[in-house]
Amino acid sequence: MTVPFQKYHGTGNDFLIIHAAEYVSDRGELAERECDRETGVGADGILYLALEERFRPPRVVMTLVQPDGATAPMCGNGARCAAEWAMQRTDTDTVMIDTQSGTLRANRANGEITVEMGTPTFAPDEVPVTATEPLFEAEIEGLEVTLVNTGVPHAVAFVDDVDDVDLEAVAPPVRYADVFPRGTNVTVASPDGDGGFDQRTYERGVEGETDSCGTGAVAIAVIARRLGLTDADPVTVRPPGGELQVSFNDRGRATLTGPVEHEFDGEVSAKPTAEP
Fold first, then answer.
1. Over the stretch 42-55, which tens digit does the pLDDT of each residue have?
2. Catalytic machinery residues
3. Which of 1, 15, 190, 263 has its CA at 20 to 30 Å from residue 224's CA atom?
4. Residue among 197, 219, 212, 196 at smallest CA distance from 121
């Protein structure tokens, strides 16, 4: 038994999209199997989407299962891919996206997708991190980081040059540090001299570096403004996979803008490999 999928990516952050109505006996196993870039299709996660066209604008319910089989509450580039998928099927340029971190509004203009990312928080109990007050430029496992939740937790370090960082060495100790009861994503950023930043992110659940991370880009912009490192709006953030724009609307919410591409369609087995 197989299920169809569509492969999308946002600045290199790639996902298999499966309609939520398709029967998959073990979503976690499917993600572990098919996200593997050597033995599976290869992806940073699987998006299960349910489209509700009776609403205006249409709504899409998004569930992200990561390569480790766990469910993530939010993903910025995943939300942008979900928005493009839904817009193509409803012939609209605006959709609402229901995630575990809240409902987001997404718009398409000039060939790019903008998604409203909610209100970032530094509150320790919402990051979450074991601390009594927000942590700014605090040393954790040898890395000086500031902590914020932009839908998922991020520990962000500003460095002179992201290319000089051995991310696979410095990120895991922070990602698994005892102060993070649910773990954290680890992002490094370096200023480009024009108010923007280069970005690299080690993603929780992927357990490695990804070509792009939307929540990480928002984390960089939010923290950089808070620390006085930029006053740009939008803030240009450049992960390895492309360029993203982070802006702030009149409600204090961050928005994430960038391109989305539909790569190809295919089918994967819906049954775990251990089943007959």
1. 999 999 999 998 99
2. 75, 213
3. 15
4. 219
Task: Give the number of other Cβ atoms within 10 Å of residue 169's Cβ.
Answer: 8
- Residue 58 · residue 86 · CB < 8 Å: yes
Helix (H, G, I), strand (E, B) or coil at 137: coil
Write out pLDDT tens, residues 153-188. 999 999 999 999 999 999 999 999 999 999 999 999
Residue 172, sorted as left (phi over 0), alpha (psi -120 to 50) or beta, turns out to be alpha
Question: Residues 171-197, buried b or exposed e (16+ Cβ, 10 A)?
Answer: beebbebebbeebbbbbbbbbeeebbb
* 88 Cβ contact list (under 8 Å, min separation 6): 262
Domains of the chain with CATH codes: 2-117+259-269 (3.10.310.10), 138-245 (3.10.310.10)
- Contact status, residue 9 vs residue 42, Cβ threshold 8 Å: no
pLDDT tens digits for 5-15? Answer: 999 999 999 99
34, 153, 163, 238: CA torsion to nearest 10: 80
Q: Burial level of 231, CB count in 10 A (0-12/13-18/19+)?
A: exposed
